[in-house]
Amino acid sequence: MIDIIELNAKIERESAFVDMINNEIHKSIIGQQGMIERLIIGLLANGHILLEGVPGLAKTQAITSLAKSIDAKFSRIQFTPDLLPADLIGTMIYSPKDESFAVKKGPIFSNFVLADEINRAPAKVQSALLEAMQERQVTIGEKTYKLEEPFLVLATQNPIEQEGTYALPEAQLDRFMMKVVITYPTQEQEKLILRQQVGSALPKIEAVLKPESILHAREVVKQVYIDEKIESYITDIVFATRFPENNNLDKLKPYISYGASPRATINLALASRAYAFIKRRGYVIPEDVRAICLDVMRHRIGLTYEAEADNITTEDIINDIINKVDVP
Length: 328
Prior knowledge:
Blueprint: H1 4-14, H2 17-25, H3 33-45, E1 48-52, H4 59-68, E2 74-78, H5 85-89, E3 90-95, E4 100-105, E5 112-116, H6 123-135, E6 137-140, E7 143-146, E8 152-157, H7 170-173, E9 176-181, H8 187-197, H9 211-221, H10 228-242, E10 256-258, H11 262-278, H12 286-297, E11 302-303, H13 305-309, H14 314-324
Parallel strand pairs: 1-8, 1-9, 2-5, 5-8
Antiparallel strand pairs: 3-4, 6-7, 10-11
Helix pairs in contact: 3-11, 10-11, 11-12, 12-14
């Protein structure tokens, strides 16, 4: 039997560093607490994150600040239409002096990889990134290289400008643990942003953690308790996207072309655990699942033409499901 009181005390101790990361990121980011929490969840649950929002909402700044707060290797790759797979993973370089080929590793060989404007790169580049994201390895020539842990891809994309972009394939979207949609700050927050940016000097982000601390925290997150009723709740939500009629949601059936994959079930459980961890709790409650459900599921449900015609979004479908499925 699990001693919940003892587990809670352990999580309380082990999760203290979350406040340290939060404090460092908030030196350069005003507001956007939801986005910052999701980035930390991805870090703890070993899941890649896709941030979507209009320009100027500090997506890149937040990711850069997170990387700086951890003393780890960081690469930023600006995705453009002329990018080649070799620009990402590296290539074989011929040396006339030695009359041999040597491997020149690309920027993917980092702990944190910022894929800026990921939807601007062509399919070959996206497929090279896909192997790195899923297999945690890169193939150059005939040799395969393991990527150093922790390895996290944090990607951004702009939803309003579609000219010269390449839509991410469903298979690659599914590799992202969460798709986080960023909204505008409040008026009060924007005033604080204004004061900060026009000030004499911006605060410096300090490294407060080592990569080894993240790997240790991931092992602790795995100990967060998920009750069987919570597991059933997660699978009920996912199955409702596939068979809405079984949950008295017949009205949603014409709007869904395909439901969430088993990867959604796995990631919903992992993200719920990490969310409970950053809330300093040793067990998952239904509110944890509901809190991150939209971010885990929004990019895993296919919409029909009827949904687009009726202006129905995946968020509408997920909210209907969450409101309908019985909470344990």
